Amino acid sequence: MALGWWKKGLAALGLVAFGNAGVEARAPAQPKPALWRVADKDTTIYLFGTIHLLPENYRWRSPAFDAAAQRSQGLVVETKIDESNQAQFAATMMQLGLQNGLPPIEQRVPAAKRPALAAAIAKSGVPAAVFNRMETWAAAFTLLGNQFRDMDLKQEEGVETVLKKSFAAAGKPIGELESNAEQLGFFDVLPETAQRALLEGALEQPAAVRGQFNAMLAAWARGDVNEIARTFNADMGSSPALRDTLLRRRNANWAGWIEQRLAQPGSVMVAVGAGHLAGRDSVQELLKKRGVRVTRIQ
Fold first, then answer.
1. 135 in Cβ contact with 188 (< 8 Å)
2. Are 106 and 200 in contact (CB under 8 A)?
3. Which of 80, 102, 194, 243 could potentially form a cystine with 236 if both were Cys, beta carbons 3.0 to 4.6 Å apart?
4. At residue 204, what are phi and psi to the nearest 5 degrees?
């Protein structure tokens, strides 16, 4: 698996993240992340690709985006998480991710990685005995918190968090494409080899992926979807199980949801991880195959 997929993937797919995770990055003077419109005679759906974690005060909004948000009567995100109280989400993760009779956690990484694993477990504050009962994907999620705390991006600055606050303040409803359990369930069904790749990725040093993350963030901010597809989606090619489970299946589900939503009048903004809106397996490409017209407006 290419170095850095783990952090790039969670941020660009908009998947769940805990605490802080970041890189040094400067926003462009005139940001213009990609924005699309799907519409018929009485329905407008705006598609916006997000980054889940951003540096503090990172500028990403544009006049075109603000106009679309203003016209939208509601917001739909991948899954709703209360950032101020993640206990319910954590409980769901533990319900899915704890199991008896698993191999000890140290046996699930190569011998060369075991010192780093032991150090990460100690730093997490979670007893090693608990990690032994965690499915490998859940252990990876837990240890990822160490890396996030060692870096400088803030979850509260992430696009979804900012949008949820602004839509809620305007009294507009916020929906979700997946429940917490459904989203975590995609990890839960990954083959063990893919889960172990995630665990190894959670042991990488934050400095090792900053350059790659910066490049992806810059591409997102300037609306360079082709670059996102090249740098991010190509990384997923090294793990077909991850690509099929976390990208293709979910994109197909969401394309079906959008097609059905066109039958309901009104306007809504759908904000999902930018990785879902880039490349040949993107939500837009699937919609086009269904005969749905998609127009890029930024």
1. yes
2. no
3. 243
4. -70, 150
Could you tell me the pTM of the whole model?
0.85
Residues sharing a CB contact under 8 Å with residue 103, sequence separation 6 or more, in sequence order: none
Reading the block at residue 118, the tokens are 């032991």
Give the pLDDT confidence of 23-72 residue by residue, as tens digits. 445 667 789 999 999 999 999 999 999 988 888 888 999 999 999 999 99
| Rg of the chain, C-alpha, whole Å | 19
Give the Cα separation of 128 and 171 in Å (integer): 45
Q: What distances in angstroms separate CA 129 from CA 125, 134, 139, 142, 242, one per listed residue?
A: 12, 9, 12, 14, 28
Question: Which sequence spans correspond to the domains of the chain?
Answer: 5-296
pLDDT (tens digit per residue) in 151-199: 677 788 889 999 999 999 999 999 999 998 998 898 898 899 989 988 9
Binning pLDDT at 50, 70 and 90, where does residue 15 land? very low
As a whole number of angstroms, the distance between CA 160 and CA 143 comes to 23
Instruction: Compute CA distances 94 → 21, 130, 134, 177, 297, whole Å.
Output: 22, 11, 8, 21, 41
Looking at 60-179, list the stretches that DSSP marks H as alpha helix, in order from N- to C-terminal side: 63-71, 87-97, 114-124, 128-133, 136-150, 159-169
Cα separation values, 56 from 22, 59, 188, Å: 9, 9, 32
Q: What is the dihedral of CA 23, 25, 31, 34, to 10 degrees?
A: -30
